[in-house]
Amino acid sequence: MVLKIGGDLLALDAAIRRQIETEARKLKDRFPGESIEAQVNVQEEFDPLHGHRVRCELSAKLGSGRQVVVREARKVAAEAISEVFAAARRSVRRLRRQTVLDLAPTTSKTFTAGAQILTH
Asked: Is the model's pLDDT at 108 over the cut of 80?
């Protein structure tokens, strides 16, 4: 798994980096056969309605050629990071399920044991 971490809060707190690395490891372990390339950005923002918050954005490219982008903003950075990775796990699971269903062969059973037209 390739992981890139960016943002302005990383210079302030090494615990944020450790949490991101731990969550990324959990994501990799959850989908061992999947090639994942992830980029995480953590930034502070001011929302006039909610005040100061921490925004976490995860962009992950899957080996199957699909992409997952998840954003979350919370008052506490740890909560935003946890929510983003939880949502990413759900999205990757959903995409993998769709890929498996798309690859499954479809069988069309047509029953012709009905009326037959006879011509003389």
From this structure: no
